[in-house]
Amino acid sequence: MLSGEGPTDLGANRPVEGGNEFVPGPMAELVDKCCHMALDYSLLEHQRLYGGDVVVYFSRGDLSLRKNKREGRAPILSGVKRPAGLGGITTQAWTLGILAVEEARKSGDRVVAILFHDSDGTRAVGQDHWSEQVAAIKQGFARAECMGGVAMVPRPKSEGWLICALRQPHYQHCAALEESAGNDGSPNSLKAMLAALNGGEYPSADVQADWVRDGTIDPRRIDMPSFAAFRRELDRACGVALNRNTHDSTRAGAA
Question: What is the 3-state secondary structure (H, E, C) of the chain?
């Protein structure tokens, strides 16, 4: 289960006859590549070939509607101090986590839930602020008792992860990109840097996703603190899912 901010991160739902079709963005392709290493198959490719709901996407609006249908407001963790302005992403993680837990109970399958959130789009982001945002998402998943919850929070924006792979020398000295300003109006913004690497034009979501699909961007080689933190959490969540599957299979065999 995925929830992001738009087409150029995890993707978006496209209306089709009979419902919606998920169109993966570059961050969804990164997730898929990373999961492929743990699961030994591609979730997105499985969905493209066979259909079904292997990968499900919820927009921020979807999460808001589902939250309002429940209690109107996510319960707050007692004793937890959260910096001002971060209650929204905790609520989003709580709502997504609840949906993941309910789906796991209904289907008997394993569910990994990933919430994407750029750490800031207006300024350079300090390490403390980024850490607070990651912690706020983890708090929401914990409140939902969602063991498969993952915070995907680039610092400051997802373009930095892509630039790490595309610029020369490839995958070298990328940690410095995390000190860049998130403001798109900055002369040396990450969006401007990515556009420069694409012949001066900011690449569409499809182009960015293709870079990951065709191997131009290799997540195994991205060496940035925020990306490493995401990978650790995703590996942990995939491990929880795999361990549960093994445990369930063992129980079934014993029965």
Answer: CEECCCCCCCEEEEEECCEEEEEECHHHHHHHHHHHHHHCCCHHHHHHHHCCCCCCECCHHHHHHHHHHCCCCCCCCCCCCCCCCCHHHHHHHHHHHHHHHHHHHHHCCCCCEEEECCCCCCCCCCHHHHHHHHHHHHHHHHHCCCCCEEEECCCCCCHHHHHHHHCCCCCCCHHHHHHCCCCCCCCCCHHHHHHHCCCCCCCCHHHHHHHHHCCCCCHHHCCCHHHHHHHHHHHHHHHHHHHHHHHHHHHHHHC
